[in-house]
Hints:
Residues 187-231 form the Flagellar basal-body/hook protein C-terminal domain. Residues 96-143 form the Flagellar hook protein FlgE/F/G-like D1 domain. Pfam families: Flg_bb_rod, Flg_bbr_C, LlgE_F_G_D1. Residues 16-35 form the Flagellar basal body rod protein N-terminal domain. Helix 1 packs antiparallel against helix 2. Strands 7, 8, 11, 12, 13, 14 and 15 form a seven-stranded antiparallel sheet that branches. It is elongated, with a radius of gyration of 26 Å. By secondary structure, it is an alpha+beta fold. Strand 13 and strand 14 form a beta hairpin. The model has no long low-confidence stretch (mean pLDDT 88). It is 25% helix and 32% strand.
Amino acid sequence: MIRGLDTLRADFNVLQDRQQNLASNIANVNTSGYQQKELFQSAMDDVSVHNYENGPLNNQYNQLTGGITWQNEISGSRVDTSQGSLEKTGLSTDYAINGNAYFAVQNNSGQTIYTKNGNFTTNADNQLTTQDGYLVLNQNGEAIDADTTNPQFLVVSFNDDNSAVNLGDTYYSTTGGVTQVTNPDVMQGYLTSSNVSMTDAITQMMETTREFQSSQQVLSATNTTLDKAVNTLGKA
Length: 236
């Protein structure tokens, strides 16, 4: 019974992580350039099965065949890099990339990071920046004058989409390297919408809720059994 409580604790932790991730994705359904995060769930390593029924006094360790898994866990995550739809805004400082690629921007620490969110603005020097004030870079790695006609953005693709790392908001880095895209299809007056599907997210939320309910029922049954074992059998 105690093992059952430990298994349920791990299950509740997994479900909580899944629910928090879904809530984050849903909250960003209208955030331009947002890419949803997916979690991977797997069973933990097997533990050996044994008893102490060896020997003349049945008190020696006896390794049984095979093992058993008691718990599941969140084993990893990935950024879904699939393309969101393009939405027309008509604003001259809005840009969208038609394809699986990213704008290169320079954050306040001088680091080059990447985003699909082309909802740009201008700073005091009339340079294109993100809404957070990060400089948007051209193909020479320099700031872009906002008055430039048909600016030559530094656009890159990730060599390995599975290596994308979410830095927060709509900024990403990658551990797999990038490749500069030649002649990228950049559309002025458009934005790339979030790739979160509300239908899929709500379906997954309902599934997680049902799993919570099932685990709560098991917890209630386990608690009842423990109560009987302690308060009823213990008095016999």
